[in-house]
Here is the input.
Amino acid sequence: MSQKDNYSIMVHGGAGALDNVKDEKTAVRYIESIRQILEHGREVMKLGGSALQAVEACASLLEDDPVFNAGCGSVLNEQGKVEMDAGIMDGRDLSAGAIASVSNIANPVQLARLVMTESEHVMLISEGAKRFAEHCGMDLTQDEYFLTPDRVEQLKEAKRSHKMILDHDETDTGGEDQKYGTIGAIARDPSGNLASATSTGGIVNKRMGRVGDSPIVGSGVYADNETCAVSATGYGEDFMRTVISKTISDFIFMKGMNAEEATHAGIEYLSRKVKGRGGVIVIDNEGNCSSGFTTKKMIHGWIEKGGETKVRFK
Ligand code: GLY
Here is the structure.
């Protein structure tokens, strides 16, 4: 393998039962979307793009696919409104950008990147984030773009059962037809730079103003060239309490673990401390890819060290 082909990319589209996927055709639809998005990431790398460019591009495509809980497929809060969170991090210098509880932004991950590069802050929320988007020349998107029939029905069901539904899991609400969701992309480019991006609509029927782990550095998103890149998906409160992405990075930094060992240790910690629900994708500083989850399934895929594209729907 030549040096320029030594890149790794991973993406995920949510962890959990994914029991809304009842037939082969729908499963293939998820798998093909993940595969195509990984191939797009490969093109970015082949054209000399950075890890940061690759994760922004892949996360944007995941946000543009309504089957995933982010961007146009975001779930609805208790008011029937979309409030999205996203974060992006550059492992070269730990620069990070995030937005929380934001509406009318088609690609929250792109706004997070602008917060990182065009402001002196790490996180902007709600109306302030929207104003910043306009200041940067980003178009605002009408509410209708986000209100898919599936998401409206999902909220009705949550209200009928008086529950918050966690996009992609069967636990907590007891049913088998819910799913946790979040999308994420991580990458290591041939220069050894790591980056991570995570984006979500959060939890169905969540309280207005609730923010999850996805935009929180060290919880749902983390990248450090010295250790690894991590993106998490699942019940955000569990990841915030365990600072799971930074914990995995610390296992590498302090204990000399590789991606697989650190992922295993991180998932064990998540389960033991808070019975955490969800999963992570991890690329270490040598380009090794790893994933782990406590839910039944996590849809994710990877290209390890320029190799073939692999997708796993379990
Ligand atoms: N992991 C997404 C959320 O809890 O909002």
